[in-house]
Amino acid sequence: MSSSRDNILARLRAAVPQDHAVAPEPATPPSVELSRTEKVARLKQRMEAMHAEVVVTDAAGWRDALKTVLRNRSLNGLLYAPATALGQELAAAWDSDLPPLVGYTEDVEQSKERLFAIDASITSTQGGLADVGALILWPDPNEPRLMSLAPPLHIAVLDATKIHDSLADAIALERWQERMPTNVLLISGPSKTADIELVLTFGVHGPKELIVLILDG
């Protein structure tokens, strides 16, 4: 004796065609390879649209560009990673009239109060994505994730040669499958959130400002 459930299932099976058409694979969109100048311009335009401040400088002048940015603000300190190449460059060329450099040298439990009281931080970057306008950060013990999340101002230093056309290109060219960390950050601007009416608000749950120094040339 068949149940109502069996009858319903039988009707559904009868309604499904026996020969299922196989949907063709979607065509892969042609890749567009941009020049370095185009990548820098596109990344800058897209990040500025998300309220980031982007300064294009060069390898010789980026420290002066950073000092100009800092002198235009009243900051109680700049959190940095002393063990990184970036941190060593900063420590060697710091001026007494700038906000004091504060090294991230302790575990988060020992430095939590300092992390959330300091006005600004500076980090290196793994690269950038021109198509969406985003930075790639690979946090590690020397430059942990909180450095880019806790202070109200995050300053990121990006080598223009590491700007990729897309995330797929970055993964393939840098062979992420061989050395990908446990945590990768993609940052497009200051922190942002939207309410139920889709009103976008910046600087609510993280840095209120993002400044990117692109080293081009």
Number of strands: 12
Report how far the terminal alpha carbons are from each other: 81 Å
Within the CATH hierarchy, at the fold level, what is the topology?
Answer: Rossmann fold
Strand content: 15-25%
The share of residues in helices is: 25-40%
Helix-and-strand structural type: alpha/beta
Tally of helical runs:
8
CATH superfamily: NagB/RpiA/CoA transferase-like
Order of strands across the biggest sheet? 1-12-7-4-2-3
Summarize the helix and strand pattern as letters.
HHEHEHEHEEEHEEHHEEEE
Domain LUD: 41-215
Organism: Candidatus Contendobacter odensis Run_B_J11
Protein name: Lactate utilisation protein C (LutC)
Describe the structure.
By secondary structure, the chain is an alpha/beta fold. It has one domain (34-215): NagB/RpiA/CoA transferase-like (Rossmann fold), CATH 3.40.50.10420. The chain has eight helices and twelve strands. It has helices spanning 4-15, 36-49, 62-71, 85-92, 108-115, 146-149, 167-173, 176-179, and strands at residues 53-57, 78-80, 101-103, 120-124, 127-129, 134-137, 153-159, 163-164, 185-187, 192-194, 200-202, 209-215. The strands form three sheets. A six-stranded parallel β-sheet has the order 1-12-7-4-2-3, sandwiched between helices. A four-stranded mixed β-sheet has the order 8-5-6-9. It has a two-stranded antiparallel ribbon with strand order 10-11. The longest helix has 14 residues, at 36-49. The protein is elongated and about 85 Å long. The N and C termini lie far apart (81 Å). The model has no long low-confidence stretch (mean pLDDT 87).
